[in-house]
Design brief:
This protein has helices at about 25-30, 50-60, 65-75, 80-105, 110-125, 150-160, 195-215, and strands at about 10-15, 15-20, 35, 45, 125-130, 135-140, 170, 180-185. It is of the alpha+beta class.
């Protein structure tokens, strides 16, 4: 699994596109596949279907073999792959609406909640309960080779997060140019930035120059 120290959305390399997976949960990392979301210059990081399994492997949702199989299948039917990518992007934007409303303490827009719950119902049909030694666990019943496989995996992860004990820890980056989501696992629960080395340092620099202008 690729865990390169890539900042602010990733970059193209000879090995493919490297994503930053620092949200603390796959569903948050998925929402973070848009860079500079609040700005007109926002950048779509899932520009082609091949970017989807690449992200998923780096996020720990696919093996290298599963990634290669999905890329190969997508190359055989590019139109179907593009339709699947668009469905994923639509689901991502719907999830973002749910999350940002939750984080800001607002009501989730009714249309977004309806669309999200339709996805939740469809995802529930694709998981089954299996016994382990001391408990039960959810397991995907979908074929990892299906172009929509990751849709249901991500929706399931988001439901587990939103209904679990870490839901109160979900945060949105405080930067005006970044809406990336993350789990605040800091001891004091006061983390503000998706990445202190990027958004946090930019904010510190702005405050520094503002103080200098005020003194001059």
């Amino acid at each position: 699994m690729v865990r390169a120290p890539v900042r602010r959305g990733g970059r193209r390399t000879p090995r493919g596109f490297l994503f930053e997976v620092s949200g603390g949960d796959p569903s948050l990392d998925f929402v973070n596949t848009v860079d500079l979301r609040p700005l007109a210059s926002r950048k779509e990081l899932l520009a082609t279907y091949a970017d989807v399994p690449s992200w998923a492997r780096q996020a720990g949702l696919l093996t290298r073999e599963q990634e290669a199989a999905l890329v190969k299948k997508a190359s055989r039917d590019r139109e179907a792959a593009e339709r699947a990518r668009k469905r994923l992007v639509e689901a991502r934007e719907c999830l973002f609406q749910v999350l940002i409303a939750f984080v800001e303490g607002k009501d989730v827009p009714g249309d977004a909640l309806d669309r999200w719950n339709r996805l939740v119902r469809r995802a529930a049909e694709r998981f089954e309960l299996v016994p382990l030694r001391e408990r039960f666990a959810w397991r995907s019943a979908s074929d990892p080779g299906e172009l929509d496989f990751l849709m249901w995996t991500i929706v399931h992860a988001a439901v587990a997060l939103l209904t679990g004990p870490e839901a109160p820890r979900i945060r949105s980056c405080a930067s005006e140019s970044c809406d990336w989501m993350f789990l605040d696992r800091s001891r004091r629960g006061n983390r503000r930035w998706c990445d202190m080395t990027v958004c946090g340092n930019r904010a510190k620099a702005r405050r520094f120059y503002a103080r200098r202008r005020a003194r001059s």
